[in-house]
Amino acid sequence: MTNSSLTGDRTGVPRRAPGAAGDAPRPPLETQGGRRGMRPRTRSAIVTWAFILPAAVYLLVFFGYPIVSNLTMSFQDFTTATFFTGEAPWVGFDNYVAVVGSGLFAKLTANTAIFTIVSLTVTFLIGLGLALFFNRYFPLNKVLRALLLLPWLLPLIISSAVWRRMMEGETGILNVVLEGLGLSGVSWLTNPDIALYSIIIVNIWVGIPFVMVIIYGGLQEIPKDYYEAASLDGATGWRSFASITWPLLRPVVVVVLMLGFIYTIRVLDIILALTGGGPANATETYASRAYHLSFVNFEFGRGAALSNILIIVSLIVAAFQLRANKRASDLAG
Q1: In terms of Cα–Cα distance, which of 142, 129, 111, 141 is closest to 310?
Q2: Residue 43: enclosing H or E segment and its boundaries?
Q3: Which of 218, 202, 189 is nearest to 280 (CA)?
Q4: DSSP string, 254-323
Q5: Residues 256 and 250 sit within 8 Å (Cβ to Cβ)
Q6: In 29, 44, 72, 321, which residue has its Cα 20 to 30 A from 220's Cα atom?
Q7: Rounded CA gap, 164 and 279, in Å?
Q8: How far apart are CA 287 and CA 75, in angstroms?
Q9: Measured distance CA(140)–CA(143) in Å, rounded
């Protein structure tokens, strides 16, 4: 045998010479079919779930469980005695029938609709106007924007207490100003025809900063080149807003309206602090009535039923807004 790639040892058994063909280095164990190591895709999936799982558990425990419990409670005769006996007889849809069939439900629906629509509309228009105003540079721009955030930053209970003091009958600052102008004072919180709109004023005051901040952020994302190109074609002012600003701002507007609706329809603390739902249920809404049923009358089943109705209404309106935005986007595209 010639002395080539094969050499022999003392036992006569041929062996390969170092560096001979076919003597390629073996791959690491972790890359051999994944038998000993972990594939990159599997490792990435484990890392992803490691981040998702804590949030999922949190949502399940602190959001999923209360929603399921509230839904179950709405089909039971759940009273204060249930906390001691653990017995809550199943009553089916009796709680829903009792809530919807009560003589107060129509008034609750009207008050909730007026409060939500008027508050959301006025808040959005004022917030949009302020965002457009602050979208240009002028002295004290940042200072004024920071000051306008104060109503949003203050705790609602404090804001409501201040407004209640301002709206008092004879000593409130609002009536003092009106009387100083030669006008008669207004029963802001005690007149059934005015009380609801007084609460709407406070809610608008609180909500304007939120709308302004979100829309202002959307305006900052619109490239300035679009306006410069449009100005060359003579599109300025209202035409520029209708052709550039509004179409590009539509996704932000949908988010603002959806979040604003969900927040407004469930407002409770302002109502409780100013009127408590009175006078004569003039300011009672779905949210405040559900609170009174559950924590004043201790009719937890009926309170849960009314709160579930509130959730259903919120979901329907949110789905409608998202569908309308998708349809508008499809038509624009």
Answers
A1: 111
A2: helix 40-59
A3: 189
A4: HHHHHHHHHHHHT--HHHHHHTTT-STTTT--HHHHHHHHHHTS--HHHHHHHHHHHHHHHHHHHHHHHH
A5: no
A6: 321
A7: 14
A8: 19
A9: 5
- Closest CA relative to residue 262, chosen from 209, 300, 197, 207: 207
pLDDT in tens, 197-244: 999 999 999 999 999 999 999 999 988 888 888 888 777 778 888 888
CA distances, 267 to each of 1, 115, 160, 290, 291 (Å): 97, 10, 12, 12, 11
Contact 264, 286 (CB under 8 A): no
Sign of the alpha-carbon torsion through 107, 108, 110, 114: positive
Whether the CB-CB separation of 313 and 265 falls below 8 Å is answered with yes
Length of the chain equals: 333
Residues 284, 203, 139, CA angle at the centre, nearest 5°? Answer: 175
- With b for 16 or more beta-carbon neighbours within 10 A and e for fewer, the 309-327 pattern comes to bbbebbeebbeebeeebee
Q: pLDDT, tens digit, for every residue of 152-184?
A: 888 888 999 999 999 988 788 999 999 989 888
Residue 16 is inside which H or E element, if any? strand 14-16
- Tokens of residue 2, six digits: 């010639």
In sequence order, which residues have a C-beta less than 8 Å from that of residue 5 and are 6 or more positions away? 16, 17, 20, 21
Structure tokens at 100: 């919807």
| Encoded tokens for 89 | 């007889």
Q: How far from chain centre, in Å, is Cα 325?
A: 17
